[in-house]
Amino acid sequence: MTMIIPMKKLTTCIMTLSIATLAISALMGCASGTPVGGFIYSDVQGPVNATGAMRGNLHGEACAASYLSLIALGDASISAAAKAGGVNQISHVDHTWTNILGLYAQYCTHVWGSKGGPSPSPMKVPSPSAPVPAPAQPPAAPTTL
Fold first, then answer.
1. Is residue 58 part of a domain?
2. What SS3 class is residue 25?
3. Is the pLDDT of residue 17 over 90?
4. What is the pTM of this model?
5. For residue 55, what are the contacts with CB-CB under 8 A and spacing of at least 6?
6. pLDDT of residue 74
7. Over the range 53-75, which residues count as b (16 or more CB within 10 Å of their CB) and which as e?
8. Domain count, the chain
9. 22 in Cβ contact with 30 (< 8 Å)
């Protein structure tokens, strides 16, 4: 027995599956910024970087958030987190990531360190020096015939 599906019903079915696939892809792809993410809920912590400095007692945090995967706001930079915690000498940097169904997502940078000394001034690039003149050639010996 052969079953024939009307063209209108087949088109409706394909459109419904396409829309569902796009919606799921948008929720999973647009609000994921971590290698491990849950479709329904994520709450993940991980390392970013470490230095050779001793772990300090100061902590700074800076966050950015996404709403409905449409609008993203905030400054989650390392410099913003260091400034928020008064950290001049960074010992290590971590991040946290929270995602709820792609409707709300938050990414935070955490900086640990100490007050240290004043923050170092930017490195200056030396300007090119004037060219050194070539050594003078000794006079040529007279030739005799």
1. yes
2. helix
3. no
4. 0.58
5. 91, 92, 112, 113
6. 95
7. eeebebebebbbebeebeeeeee
8. 1
9. no
Q: Tokens 């209108």 label which residue?
A: 8
User: The domain containing residue 24 runs over which residues?
Assistant: 9-114
CB contact at 8 A, 37 and 78: no
Radius of gyration (Cα) for the chain, nearest Å?
Answer: 31
Residue 138 lies in a domain: no
In a domain, 27, yes or no: yes
What's the burial of 128, exposed, middle or buried (CB within 10 Å: 0-12/13-18/19+)? exposed
Residue 48 falls inside a structural domain: yes
Sequence-distant (6+) residues with CB within 8 A of 96 are 43, 44, 45, 106, 107, 108, 110
Highest mean pLDDT range out of 1-5, 99-103, 109-113? 109-113
